[in-house]
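User: For a reading group we're discussing how well predicted structures match intuition. Take Transposase. Before you show the prediction, I'll give you the sequence so everyone sees exactly what went in.
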Amino acid sequence: MVFKEDYARSKRSAHQNRYFSESFKKQKVSEIESNLFTVSDLSRMYEVSRTSVYKWIYRYSLHRKRGIKQVIELNSDSKKIITAKT
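Assistant: Thanks. Here is the predicted 3D structure of Transposase, as structure tokens, for the group to look at:
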């Protein structure tokens, strides 16, 4: 007799040792940067942790590197000041 817990454990363990090629990871990071998918989308589609996807981003992204902060403000005060001066 198979118990639900045993099935869940066997299903999880089947995904622990999967490997994705470097080109696959680079392609997925590129898709995230192009706003085609979110980290959560890729995580669900390929059944990998969000942490793994973020590691791919830190390693293969041209823009997002660990330790570097990118601040994006659509309605920033700087933009308002520049607009007001012109």
